[in-house]
Design brief:
Blueprint lengths: L3 H12 L5 E6 L2 E6 L5 E4 L7 E4 L6 E6 L20 E4 L4 E4 L15 E2 L4 E7 L2 E6 L4 E6 L6 E2 L4 E7 L1
Antiparallel strand pairs: 1-2, 2-5, 3-4, 6-13, 7-9, 7-12, 8-11, 9-10, 11-13
Length: 164
């Protein structure tokens, strides 16, 4: 069963992204979060400029259902099960991802490099502030999931690390 704090955190995460629907099954419980779309109404009058008006957006719809386990004794595969052995380093904020401290400097990390918990892996720029992101895990960089200069969202995976 899902804890209320987990559901609240998932709602916050979904609300801050472009994801419109999320469905999770865990220990026989099913959680579905759906974000309603923003409805835009445009009033058009001959010779007058277009003036968009917006309707009130209702809060996300959350459904929790108890379901019978699919296969007794077998866990359902998690999303991204192909990368199940890897640790994801995710963005703690919305911002712009940079691999190096400046364009003329080498990247902090490359695929195949070993890192430790204090290794700086990238910079995230938010509101003209440069924030260094530490790995917080010991291992080897397996994949860099975003491009240099790309805008990233809160919770978006940035790196895959094979933990030691």
């Amino acid at each position: 069963m899902f804890k209320l704090s987990e559901i609240k955190e998932l709602i916050k995460l979904i609300d801050g992204t472009s994801v419109h629907e999320l469905e999770i099954e865990n220990d026989g419980a099913r959680l579905m979060i759906r974000k309603p779309g923003k409805t835009e109404v445009v009033n058009v009058q001959q010779g007058a400029p277009l003036v968009p008006t917006y309707t009130q957006v209702s809060p996300p719809i959350v459904e929790v259902q108890q379901t019978a386990p699919q296969n007794a004794g077998q866990a359902a595969p998690a999303p991204g099960a192909a990368n199940s052995g890897y640790h994801q380093i995710v963005s703690p904020m919305v911002g712009t991802f940079y691999r190096a401290s400046s364009p003329d400097k080498p990247p902090y990390v490359n695929v195949g490099e070993r890192i430790n918990e204090k290794s700086i892996v990238c910079i995230l720029e938010a509101m003209k502030l440069m924030n260094e992101l530490e790995a917080e895990v010991r291992g080897e960089i397996v994949e860099i999931l975003v491009e240099n200069g790309q805008l990233v969202e809160y919770g978006q995976p940035l790196f895959l690390v094979k933990p030691e």
